[in-house]
Amino acid sequence: MSNAGFAKEQGGMSTEVIRRAFGAAEDEFLQQVRQAWPKRPRMAAVGSCCLLGAISGDTLFVANLGDSRAVLGRRVVGGTVAVAERLSTDHNVASEEVRMEVTSQNPDDGQIVVHTRGAWRVKGIIQVSRSIGDVYLKKQEYSMDPLFRQIGPVIALKRPALSAEPQIQVRKLKPTDLFLIFASDGLWEHLSDDDAVQIVFKNPRTGIANRLVRAALKEATKKREVSLHDLKTIEKGVRRHFHDDISVVVVYLDRHRGRRHTRVVDSSSNCTSAPVDIYSSNSGKSAQSLQAYRDSG
Questions:
Q1: Whole-angstrom Cα distance, residue 220 to residue 192?
Q2: How many contiguous H segments (helices) and E segments (strands) does the chain have?
Q3: What's the confidence (pLDDT) of residue 271?
Q4: 104-153 residue pLDDT tens
Q5: In what order do the strands lie in the sheet with 59-65?
Q6: pTM score > 0.85 for this model?
Q7: Rounded Cα gap, residues 177 and 84, in angstroms
Q8: Given 3-state DSSP classes, what are the helix, strand and coil percentages for the chain, each rounded to the nearest 5?
Q9: Distance of CA 54 to the CA centre of its chain
């Protein structure tokens, strides 16, 4: 059931509705892993970040796990400039605060977070501390199973190394709130929150998500000293060494004020039926992109 479905069932959007929806997504993915296990044990090593935004009346809900990010662009009161306000927390152990959180939850595991291959990683493997999936880092019966040893080494777990618990922010929309940017970490690796907000604020709406993707790719080419044309010709698997997936949705807020129904943006599949005030783009046909849809119930 979707977030919109849970909201209808509960009579409206709430933090509990969102929490239940995230839990249902995790449970459903675990069921898929169980069903696929004998023939596709690699499914246990598949996971995704999840970022969701919902507007109900004049209330904005933002929920995330992983390191996709939501950023608000708002006008300074009495001014003609926009400033950025981050609405989510990056659950990535590159952050000292996140490392401390993970370590405190695993006081008897000296290897829960280690620095290897140039970065801090949970169990020396993954940088995010929360995800949907990645069952091998949550349930030891999978990582210890002989089938999984075809894919990776045994991973000793005393408890789940990763969490599927979303962090939820609730905020009343204000007249100065202009737009929301929802994007995967591939965008934020190359653009600051303020860079992204200024691009959206200073440019036409049509094509704005594509403009953000292009700006991030331009920065990636500078860092890697390759041309954008050459970057686009690199095979997808190899290209991830140049930049991560870049998925973007921009939601303008002026059309939302006074609406009674719930609008939802989540990190699921591709955007196929977005309303005119929602713009999306993706740097390639990756497993993780962003979707926007309307619940008119």
A1: 13
A2: 9, 14
A3: 37
A4: 999 999 999 999 999 999 999 999 999 999 999 999 889 888 888 888 88
A5: 167-172, 59-65, 50-56, 262-266, 291-295
A6: no
A7: 10
A8: 30, 25, 40
A9: 14
Which residue carries 């892993």 as its tokens?
Answer: 33
How high is the pLDDT of residue 153? 83
- For residues 7-28, give the mean pLDDT: 88
Tokens encoding 97: 């605060």
DSSP summary character for residue 137: G
- The two tokens of residue 56 are 């109900």
Q: Under a CB-based contact definition with an 8 Å cutoff, are residues 92 and 98 in contact? A: yes
Mean pLDDT, range 262-285, rounded to an integer? 52
Tokens 């080419």 correspond to 221
| Alpha-carbon gap, residue 255 to 55, rounded angstroms | 11
Determine the 3-state secondary structure of 30 from DSSP.
helix
∠ CA 143-101-126 to the nearest 5 degrees? Answer: 35
Instruction: Report percent pLDDT > 70 for the chain.
Output: 75
Taking CA atoms, 188 is separated from 69, 234, 278, in Å, by: 8, 21, 19
